[in-house]
Write a structure and sequence with these properties.
This protein is α/β, with parallel strands linked by helices. It has three domains: about 1-165, Rossmann fold (3-Layer(aba) Sandwich); about 210-290, Orthogonal Bundle (N-(1-d-carboxylethyl)-l-norvaline Dehydrogenase, domain 2), CATH 1.10.1040; about 295-425, Rossmann fold, CATH 3.40.50. The chain is built from 17 helices and 14 strands. It has helices spanning about 10-20, 35-40, 50-60, 70-75, 100-110, 125-135, 135-140, 160-165, 175-190, 200-230, 235-245, 265-275, 285-305, 335-345, 370-375, 395-400, 415-420; strands spanning about 1-5, 25-30, 65, 80, 115-120, 145-150, 165-170, 195-200, 315-320, 350, 365-370, 380-385, 405-410, 425-430. Helix 1 links the parallel strand 1 and strand 2. Helix 1 crosses helix 3 (about 50-60), helix 10 (about 200-230) runs parallel beside helix 13 (about 285-305) and helix 12 runs antiparallel to helix 13 (about 285-305). The N and C termini lie far apart (about 55 Å). Bound molecules: uridine-5'-diphosphate-glucuronic acid. Uridine-5'-diphosphate-glucuronic acid binds next to helix 10.
Length: about 425
Amino acid sequence: MKLCMIGAGYVGLVSGVCFSDLGNNVICVDKDKSKINALKKCIVPIYEPGLEEILKRNFKQKRINFTDNLKDAVTKSDIIFICVGTPTKKNTNSADLRYVFSAANEIKKFIKKYKIIVTKSTVPVSTGDKIEKIFSILKKKKLVDVVSNPEFLREGEAIRDFINPDRVVVGTNSERANKILKSLYQPIVKKNSRYIKTSRRGAELIKYASNAFLATKISYINELANLCEQTDVDIKDISTGMGLDERIGERFLRAGPAYGGSCFPKDTRALIDTGKNFKTDLTIVKTVVKSNENRKKMLTKRVLTILGNKIKNKQITFLGVTFKPNTDDMREACSLYMIPYLVRKGVKVKYFDPSGKKNIFNNNNIEYCKNISSACLKSDLIIIHTEWNEFKFIDFKKIVKKNNFKVYDMRNIYDPKRMKLNKIKYFAVGRKV
Ligand code: UGA
């Protein structure tokens, strides 16, 4: 099929590349010319394992291309995917839909024969209705169907998530559009996953409901971790004991710092806002957002306690600063709150992140290091903030040249017993050690 992705950001690029790998012809459109030029040289502007290889393969076979010419891309395609950002509007909870509506208005100008307009961007329930209004004349002439098809890709695992989806959700009441989308997704949905057709509003809401539920699961286990610390129980046992109940499930029950990223914080806020617009008080989601904000402060205070509240001129090392491993995305990472706060209190911070993330903080007391050893060398406290694989087997005694250094493992990577045996002062999350 001939597909066009509007927006070569995370969603548009990953989906476009994966669709081309399934044998479709894909054109990705973006207003950012430098991005388009880089992509034409198969340089991927985001950190996503495996993406560049698949892009190169399909670019060579001429199944995928990039352009800033929207007219050309829309004219040549049968299905147009809107994959632009929906960030939070400044000082509000609501999703900023200006890029979505502006894309729809642009696309409208170039439709002369039947096309399916698919919203992949995460948009609040009823946005599809507004997009359809933009296309109302074309809709009357049966030249377009406006469909919702949210994505469920995790950064760092996006290729796997695309190829092996738990489900594909398509929201439309058009049989014609549904039939076409079903055959588009047929190569991947036959692998035990499910193709779910629902209403357009239903599809829009499934996306928010899923992200908010996962955020709730994480906040729930994080709060229980606090209780575990007070009761001398290991949170890992709680996660396993709960998770083996198939109704609950083991995934997303890992306690850690506050959840972050480009999706959970933004989408929980937007869902609260949607609730308000539709006169529905989503008290659980509101509490989750609050709990997550509190968590950042709570863990930062714990850092101060671990250092005995004597922090002036102490050196703290952050291993990992991104919101999770296998990404270079810093959006709403807990470190963005913690590091500046601690520095204001008088500590010096060194950090290393395998994504190569540097120059984030622009402060003389925050220094990027090239590797784990140089970041830890003279550290008083090493904080494992992100669970990158290369942080899992560190010989702390060998690399840290400071007496009485401490380790605060915010991802519970290490075994407390082993750390005790090695005489390392070790602190973790939800485990009294
Ligand atoms: C999330 C969803 O998982 C995807 O399904 C969805 O498509 C995506 O948002 C989106 O809306 O586009 P992502 O933000 O890439 O994906 O990251 P996750 O792997 O979900 O992690 C989010 C945060 O939760 C991270 O800060 C992570 O460290 C934290 N987390 C996750 C935990 O603290 N504990 C867990 O057990 C799992």
